[in-house]
Design a protein that fits this description.
Layout lengths: L7 E4 L9 E5 L6 E8 L2 E6 L23 E3 L6 E3 L5 E3 L9 E2 L1 E4 L2 E4 L5 H10 L8
Antiparallel strand pairs: 1-10, 2-3, 3-4, 4-8, 5-6, 6-7, 9-10
Bound molecules: FE2/S2 (inorganic) cluster.
FE2/S2 (inorganic) cluster binds next to loops.
Length: 135
């Protein structure tokens, strides 16, 4: 089976173990902006949009985690999320979750899973309701 280059997120080795990695796939008005993090020997992906106020979670391309690497951190107002589930355990959107992006790993590359419709996911994430009181 060939690699679909338009669905390649990055090489597995390009994911900073203590930070993660941002990616953008697709074009036009609705590119899919997401990020990937390592969870043990696996990789998880999420849309890069905080359920609190809708901001990207990172300020730098490879900085998505708390300093100890245990949780995903939103740099805007400090919400923290489980790496394995995207569930917000503390912060202004506690109890909400990041939007997951299904991934596959093939031959050392991280790819969007075949089931991911890039445009539909990007639009749905953009339209998702934010936490109450967010501005
Ligand atoms: S936008 Fe993420 S905590 Fe406010």
């Amino acid at each position: 089976m060939d690699l679909d280059l338009e669905r390649v997120v990055c090489r597995l080795t390009e994911i900073e173990p203590q930070g993660g990695r941002a990616f953008t796939i697709g074009g036009g008005d609705w590119p899919l902006k997401g990020f990937v993090v390592r969870v043990g020997g696996e990789v998880r992906g999420y849309v890069n949009r905080c359920p609190h106020a809708g901001h990207p979670l990172n300020l730098l391309p490879q900085r998505f985690l708390t300093p100890d690497g245990a949780l995903i951190l939103c740099s805007s107002h400090g919400a923290v999320f489980e790496k394995s589930s995207g569930y917000c355990v503390a912060g202004p959107c506690a109890g909400r979750s990041l939007t997951p992006v299904a991934l596959e790993v093939r031959w050392g590359f991280v790819l969007l899973a075949d089931s991911v419709d890039v445009q539909a996911l990007a639009q749905a994430a953009e339209a998702a309701p934010l936490a109450e009181g967010a501005s």
